[in-house]
């Protein structure tokens, strides 16, 4: 629309130019014709230069629009990462009472029943198992308090599916009231299970002080 307006203004100026030439020397038709040609040539050159500038401006606008679209996409991706899936939980072994848990004849997942948080509901207190619902890298930590007796007999491990990852144990010495903890950063796929397992014929102690805990959260999705 702006280009059309410019052209119309220039053409109108050409008409005035022609009229002025005719008024000044109507009897000299050759001179008038030469003036007309000169006027049209000037207008054509000016329009051509303006057209080139408009084309350059259009290219710049297109480039800016492309950059803006890319920036908008990057902002959306950043928002997605910031707001991304929220997965985090923390739980303690007992929700009431005190005493030893175990021993069992086979290795058994510990059921941490006192829930502090469970964002995403990926941890199941009925089974003691965390199940990944998002592909990503996760952090897990657990703590163990040994059995309160003269002879310690506690072995606890963190497992991914059927794979033992890390352990905490206390099976020798004459002291009691010992604690330990361990942690990992691991990749998980949707459906992978992570749990803390009490070894066969071992036991741990807990009470209202909640010594034994199991926690984890999603660091970032993949």
From TrEMBL:
Residue ranges that the Swiss-Prot or TrEMBL entry lists as coiled coil: none
Top-level taxon of the source organism: Eukaryota
Matches recorded under InterPro entries: C1q_dom (IPR001073), Cerebellin_Synaptic_Org (IPR050822), Tumour_necrosis_fac-like_dom (IPR008983)
Primary location recorded for the protein, binned into one broad class: secreted
The keyword Secreted is annotated on this UniProt entry: yes
Signal peptide: 1-19
Subcellular location: Secreted
GO cellular component terms listed in the entry, alphabetical order: extracellular region
Gene3D superfamilies reported in the protein's UniProt record: 2.60.120.40
Keywords on record: Secreted, Signal
A Pfam match: C1q
Occurrences of domain C1q (ranges): 82-222
This protein's name: C1q domain-containing protein
Organism name: Oryzias latipes
């Amino acid at each position: 629309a702006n280009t059309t307006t410019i052209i119309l203004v220039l053409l109108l100026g050409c008409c005035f130019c022609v009229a002025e030439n005719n008024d000044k020397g109507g009897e000299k038709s050759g001179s008038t014709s030469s003036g007309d040609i000169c006027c049209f040539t000037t207008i054509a050159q000016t329009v051509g230069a303006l057209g080139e500038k408009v084309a350059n401006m259009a290219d710049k606008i297109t480039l800016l629009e492309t950059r803006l679209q890319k920036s908008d996409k990057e902002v959306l991706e950043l928002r997605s990462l910031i707001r991304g899936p929220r997965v985090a939980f923390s739980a303690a072994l007992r929700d009431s009472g005190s005493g030893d848990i175990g021993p069992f004849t086979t290795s058994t997942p510990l059921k941490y029943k006192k829930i502090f948080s469970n964002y995403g509901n990926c941890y199941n207190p009925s089974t003691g198992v965390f199940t990944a619902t998002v592909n990503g890298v996760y952090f897990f930590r657990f703590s163990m308090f040994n059995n309160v007796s003269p002879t310690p007999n506690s072995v606890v491990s963190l497992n991914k599916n059927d794979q033992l990852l890390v352990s905490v144990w206390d099976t020798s010495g004459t002291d009691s009231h010992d604690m330990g903890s361990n942690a990992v950063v691991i990749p998980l796929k949707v459906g992978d299970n992570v749990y803390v397992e009490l070894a066969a014929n071992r036991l741990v102690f807990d009470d209202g002080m909640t010594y034994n805990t199991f926690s984890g959260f999603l660091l970032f999705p993949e």
